[in-house]
TrEMBL record:
<protein>
    <submittedName>
        <fullName>Flavin reductase family protein</fullName>
    </submittedName>
</protein>
<dbReference type="InterPro" id="IPR012349">
    <property type="entry name" value="Split_barrel_FMN-bd"/>
</dbReference>
<dbReference type="Pfam" id="PF01613">
    <property type="entry name" value="Flavin_Reduct"/>
</dbReference>
<keyword id="KW-0560">Oxidoreductase</keyword>
<dbReference type="InterPro" id="IPR002563">
    <property type="entry name" value="Flavin_Rdtase-like_dom"/>
</dbReference>
<dbReference type="InterPro" id="IPR050268">
    <property type="entry name" value="NADH-dep_flavin_reductase"/>
</dbReference>
<comment type="similarity">
    <text>Belongs to the non-flavoprotein flavin reductase family.</text>
</comment>
<feature type="domain" description="Flavin reductase like">
    <location>
        <begin position="27"/>
        <end position="178"/>
    </location>
</feature>
Length: 186
């Protein structure tokens, strides 16, 4: 197909990507899964200190590959939590359930209160999971790729569990939503 004068152009209708507010609104048109990323690390006193839970919420999460089993998330370069998570031998990724928006906000809040009132579970090697999640993935760091003001993190799934009956939480248009089953008609 060749372009000719009969082919309509849309350049005049497009906004420059340099307009951050417009860019954020455009990004919000795409729904994404919301996850908790967490691990258990040695306490401030080293090997003698009580283990500490480290975690955060992430909304730029997606599946990447079946072979090897990979998922990705994007982390702001200014994050003070990611450097602590990335050093762990195992990282837990919990897919929030649709009724866990308050818990997601909590894990996105101040680091000293992220696990208040939560009884997480975990693996022997340090992956931590939130209770009642739609899916839990025990991962190892596969790769990190600089990506502007974020880092694209690839995690290799080592083990997992899921509950297909639990609806996931979705982030869309700057708010939390749940999925709706649509009728396929008669």
């Amino acid at each position: 197909m060749t372009l000719d004068s009969a082919f309509p152009t849309t350049t005049a209708e497009l906004s420059p990507a340099a307009d951050v507010d417009v860019l954020k609104r455009a990004y919000s048109c795409f729904p994404s899964g919301v996850v908790a990323v967490a691990c258990r690390v040695a306490g401030a006193d080293g090997a003698d200190g009580a283990p500490e839970l480290v975690g955060m919420a992430a909304s730029a999460f997606t599946t990447v590959s079946l072979d090897p089993p990979l998922v990705s998330l994007c982390v702001q370069n200014t994050s003070t939590t990611w450097p602590r998570l990335r050093a762990a031998p195992a990282i837990g990724v919990s897919v929030f359930a649709r009724d866990q928006s308050d818990l997601c906000r909590q894990l996105a809040g101040p680091s000293d209160a992220r696990f208040s009132g939560i009884t997480p579970s975990g693996t022997d090697d340090g992956a931590v999971f939130i209770p009642d999640a739609a899916a839990c993935l025990s991962c190892s760091l596969h790769n990190e790729i600089p990506a502007g003001d974020h880092t694209l993190v690839l995690l290799r799934i080592e083990a997992l569990r899921y509950d297909a009956g639990v609806e996931p939480l979705v982030f869309h248009a700057s708010t939390f939503r749940s999925l709706e089953v649509r009728s396929t008609g008669p």
